[in-house]
Specification:
There is one protein chain. With 451 residues, the protein is α+β, with helices and mostly antiparallel strands. It has 2 domains: 232 residues, Amidase signature (AS) domain (Amidase signature (AS) enzymes); 201 residues, Amidase signature (AS) enzymes. It is 39% helix and 16% strand. An 11-stranded mixed sheet has the order 1-3-2-8-10-9-16-17-13-11-12, with helices on both faces. A two-stranded antiparallel sheet has the order 4-5. α8 links the parallel β11 and β12. α9 packs antiparallel against α11. The chain is globular and about 60 Å long. The termini are close together. This is Aspartyl-tRNA(Asn)/glutamyl-tRNA(Gln) amidotransferase subunit A. It comes from Sphingobium boeckii. One of its GO terms (molecular function) is asparaginyl-tRNA synthase (glutamine-hydrolyzing) activity. Pfam families: Amidase. Its EC number is 6.3.5.6, 6.3.5.7.
């Protein structure tokens, strides 16, 4: 390797383009070059959009040359999980059976908002088939590898998005989160990610999985960059933020089954915040089971017809889980939905006393691909199905959650920052505060991605 390429963040990139220090075409060309050089090692990108990206970048440069403001994300390259509609491309949702589907007639609403802000779409990104998994092991596109250790999972189902940002291929990316599909890969790849308050960001043009739980959100390498992208996606200026003064750790379920590294990191975070109280939530196991049932039932129902006519076109791992979900009685589904009021009241009481709750995003560092299991109650369990142990109960309630990377040595780990519905802006402010105090920090881009 010779020399280094400076990899700019979201806000740095936009400022450089607006000032004329670098052109959008140069910025986008550099991103496409990094993808070409480094993606083969991690398999985060499924398709590049060279012609479109360079055309859109030239349009941004024309706005700058004319003295007009291209927008807050001027010239910033980004990628999207391969379940966002991209005009002219088939929306595969990671499935081989959709690779020749009719192309999308327009971009997803989220992409339109980002493009209107000056951002430039450069790639689509790998995922678990139909977003049903936590490791981004895709039968058609292949497995996405963790940029910090290619022998380990990147997490999923938005693993391509997280790995692309962690490796410095793009400054930010979009993913989706149903049961942890943003928070888990963000944690395992050492970057920030957000699952917003349910239904607060545009889902038009995003391939569905579980409508009760699905949300879209962004990945970035800093809390400020994440906030800048989130603000654009909301389509309006962010509201003023009220600082969180009463953080607490979640214990019980959220302390059990942790790796020693995560236990130590949570203790260090607590000390850094002056010593945090611990909150115990009742019957978290029921909330996780209910989220699991809702996922299986709604996912199975959505795919029931296709499974009946063409089951062999599915990845067997996905197919079997969808078929099992389609067999769940509707009465069980409704019981799982009703429990949300009960568990929601438990969480609301905790959030009245403590305005932000902190929990691990995963049990610890990314599992090895060759040993795809995690220990749950002393027994090895599938990582693909169980990495959401701590994220699923939170997804169940539709609360805003930020995955924040911890400043640990070695492999990345992250925590969930959880707040009441509608307090996304306040949560982003809290994440920036943690970052400013050195209590949260993205892992450095691996050196091979600098070459």
């Amino acid at each position: 390797m010779t020399g280094k390429t400076v990899i700019l963040g979201v806000l740095e990139s936009a400022a450089a383009v607006k000032s004329g220090r670098i052109s959008a075409v140069e910025l986008v060309s550099a991103a496409l070059g990094r993808i070409a050089e480094h993606n083969p090692a991690i398999n985060a990108v499924t398709r590049t959009l060279d012609e479109r990206a360079l055309r859109d970048a030239a349009a941004v440069d024309a706005e700058v040359a004319a003295g007009r403001d291209p927008g807050p994300l001027a010239g910033v390259p980004f990628g999207v999980k391969d379940l966002f509609d991209v005009e002219g491309l088939s929306t595969t949702a990671g499935a081989a059976r959709l690779k020749d589907a009719p192309p999308a007639s327009s971009d997803a609403e989220a992409i339109q908002r980002l493009q209107a802000s000056g951002a430039v779409l450069v790639a689509t990104l790998n995922m678990d088939e139909f977003a049903y998994g936590f490791v981004t092991d895709n039968a058609h596109w292949g497995i996405t590898l963790n940029p910090h250790d290619v022998d380990r999972f990147a997490g999923g189902s938005s693993g391509g998005s997280a790995a692309a940002v962690a490796a410095g291929l793009v400054p930010f990316a979009l993913g989706s989160d149903t049961n942890g599909s943003i928070r888990i890969p963000a944690s395992l790849c050492g970057i920030y990610g957000i699952k917003p308050t349910h239904a607060s960001l545009p889902m038009e043009g995003v391939y569905p999985f579980v409508h009760t739980l699905d949300d879209m959100g962004a990945f970035a390498r800093s809390a400020s960059d994440l906030a800048a992208v989130d603000e654009v996606l909301r389509g309006n200026a962010a509201s003023s933020s009220v600082p969180f003064q009463r953080p607490a750790l979640l214990g019980g379920w959220f302390h059990d089954n942790l790796a020693s590294q995560m236990t130590a990191a949570l203790e260090a975070l607590s000390i850094g915040l002056g010593g945090l109280p611990t909150v115990q939530l009742a019957e978290v196991d029921r909330a996780r089971s209910a989220a699991f049932l809702i996922t299986a039932f709604e996912g199975g129902a959505y795919h029931r017809d296709a499974l009946g006519t063409d089951p062999l076109s599915y990845d067997p791992m996905t197919r079997d889980r969808l078929i099992a979900g389609a067999a769940i009685p509707e009465a069980i589904y409704h019981e799982a939905m009703r429990y949300r009021d009960i568990f929601g009241a438990v969480m609301a009481a905790a959030l009245e006393t403590h305005d932000v709750l902190i929990a691990p995003a995963t049990f610890g560092p990314a599992p090895l691909i060759a040993d795809p299991f995690i220990a749950v109650d002393g027994k090895p369990q599938s990582a693909r199905a169980n990495l959401g142990l701590y994220t699923q109960p939170i997804s169940y309630l539709g609360l805003p959650v930020i995955a924040a990377p911890l400043p640990v040595e070695g492999l990345p780990m992250g925590v969930q920052l959880i707040a009441a519905k509608g307090r996304d802006t306040d949560l982003l402010h809290f994440a920036r505060t943690l970052e400013a105090r050195g209590l949260a920090a993205a892992h450095a881009v691996p050196q091979e991605a600098h070459a």
